[in-house]
Design a protein that fits this description.
single chain, Aminopeptidase, 7-stranded mixed sheet, 4 helices, alpha+beta, 160 residues
């Protein structure tokens, strides 16, 4: 069964085994790079299947300062990764299905969360849409590998 939990910086080695698929480094950093030199305003979270780490993501609390489409104080979901060795088993879909409820419980003052997904990554875009993320009207051009869709997820029981 899929669950999500906070991941302390002292426990980041629990996700160090997660691998990228070939070409996936265009869209997400490897775990070693994703977890080093990170601002204190970023929290890590682990996706588990029956207690085993299968994925990781970050919540950035200064997202609105760096992304013009974000509302003041709106956080960003970044570096969402299900390890290559666990892909194709529905773990990303299952994690996104519980994401809003998890984030609402973990961050009670948060009303919504944003992410960007590369326009050349239709599989991820589709999974995020199925997970409840809604595309914003304009593309984001601040990424390193081309235009990206900006998407927002309203958190359970809260206005987005």
């Amino acid at each position: 069964m899929i669950s999500i939990s906070p991941l302390a910086r002292s426990d980041l080695d629990r996700v160090s085994h997660l691998e990228l698929a070939e070409g996936q480094d265009r869209f997400v950093n490897p775990v070693a790079k994703m977890t080093t030199g990170i601002s204190a305003r970023v929290d890590f979270h682990m996706i588990e299947n029956d207690g085993a780490a299968v994925g990781v993501f970050k919540i950035g609390h200064d997202y609105s300062q760096k992304h013009g489409f974000a509302q003041d104080g709106e956080a960003g979901l970044m570096g969402f990764l299900v390890g290559h060795q666990y892909q194709g088993q529905g773990f990303a879909k299952a994690a996104l299905a519980i994401m809003a409820k998890y984030l609402a419980a973990t961050y009670p003052k948060m009303n919504s969360v944003l992410l960007t997904v590369n326009c050349d990554n239709p599989a991820a875009h589709h999974v995020y849409q199925r997970g409840g993320f809604v595309e914003l009207p304009e593309l984001y051009f601040g990424g390193t590998t081309g235009p990206q869709y900006a998407m927002r997820l309203g958190l359970t029981g809260k206005a987005a």
